[in-house]
Amino acid sequence: MTTVIRMYKAGDPSVLVTEEEEVGHPGAGQVKLRHEAIGVNFVDTMFRSGAFGAPLPFVTGVEAAGIVTELGPGVRQFEVGDRVAYFFAPGAYAAERVIDVAPLIRIPDDIATDIAAGFLTKGVTAWLAVRHLHMVKPGDTVLVQGATGGVGSLVTRWAKALGATVIAVGSAAKLGGIAHEVDHALASDEPNLGLRIRAVTPQGVDVVYEFVGKATFPASVKAVRDGGEIFTIGAASGSPEIDQAELSARSVTVAHASAAATVKGAMLQQASTELFDRWREGIFGEIELHRYRLVDVAQAHRDIASRSIGPNPILVP
């Protein structure tokens, strides 16, 4: 028997129900995993709230890391005992699971299992931003909306390491954690935010990575230069209202990006390799993990909602 967290209806954290169930054997192209750590992401709370309309009953959680305990027929790329992690494969809130091999990556020997579980999804999303959507280079001016969040903080540091001028906008209470690492740090609730950004970069920014959405998008539009780019990668405050005519007149490109839909197969291997290389270089600083027992996942969700924890919560079965 294994512990599984399942929801039978959408709602607040109280809908997450702890159950015990048997885990079957893996089929063709699958393995069985024993999870050692499970990442908790903002997207998990959106699945739980019903924002994505997931079929019920549903086991949420999209990333974890652990040990391969059984191979299904035809699996050659992994062996029993391998440490692996995965990125965006719903069903992670469980002590054990059966999973297709497609989203799995092998964890390098020098990367701790809990580190892999705690920042793979966030890190791959950051890679998508700075290494795929817009290849950040020296001389770029980059605006990160939501720079104090889990993904935003990684994007901020990675863009700076690539030689960009970085303007970080985030929670006033948490800006101190990154202010010394960027060129300009501004609170997201600052009046006339768009004008404040323009004051520090009158020519406008080359690219905006927008993780907040509706609340900060007007400032992003004011801040971006004509011919610049805005990538909406998250919408914590709701979907932004986009005046396409205005943006087209300024030749501003706006695109929504999803790491889950984009980063697969060989691209996932490339992204994870580069991510771990940058981790070894220390550009992300210390990855601080906040641990919860798997059965305490509802509290983790409440803490995410209240913003009372850091960006890397994990569940330990």
Automatic annotation (TrEMBL):
Q: Does the keyword Oxidoreductase apply?
A: yes
Output the superkingdom of the source species: Bacteria
The region annotated as signal peptide is none
SMART domains per the UniProt record, alphabetical:
PKS_ER (SM00829)
Gene3D superfamilies in the record, alphabetically? Medium-chain alcohol dehydrogenases, catalytic domain, NAD(P)-binding Rossmann-like Domain
Q: Which residues form the Enoyl reductase (ER) domain?
A: 11-314
User: Which keywords does UniProt give here?
Assistant: NADP, Oxidoreductase
Q: Which GO terms describe its molecular function?
A: mRNA 3'-UTR AU-rich region binding; NADPH binding; quinone reductase (NADPH) activity
- GO cellular component assignments: cytosol
Q: What is this protein called?
A: Enoyl reductase (ER) domain-containing protein
